[in-house]
Amino acid sequence: MTSGMKDNNNRTTIYVGGLDDQVNEQILHAAFIPFGDIVEIQIPPDPASHNQHRGFGFVEFEEASDAQASIDNMNLSELYGKVIKVNLARPIRIKDGSMRAVWSEDAWLQKYALKSADPNVPYESDENEGDKQQQEGKSDATQMKSPEQ
To answer: Known CDD domains for this protein (predicted)?
Structure first.
């Protein structure tokens, strides 16, 4: 699908939104074939419902002019009783920072990094803290009187 989305003048993939539940790839193909040769049609399924789609799809044409003609003629038209919206599809953009290491995030650093950046201050991890509590618990237990006394 991304092969046809180069720049605004050469993009060949269109977005078709507002699809009725009955619309499938064959119906979408039949609706858009009058505008030019179609390379691929995708209708993403709804993960919650295995039998239905999410109400939109993508049609990739061979030529950018065919994609534009389909937009000009099909946008706000009716398909299976519903008004559809047809636009140029937007390229998938990787979220800024999605390829960054987890330790570059402040939240990760606050949770897992050293509590003190000062090398002169000794670091005590949470693991040692558990040992301290166990030792304190033992000393408290040894000082407690048994119920027999």
So the answer is: RRM_PPIE
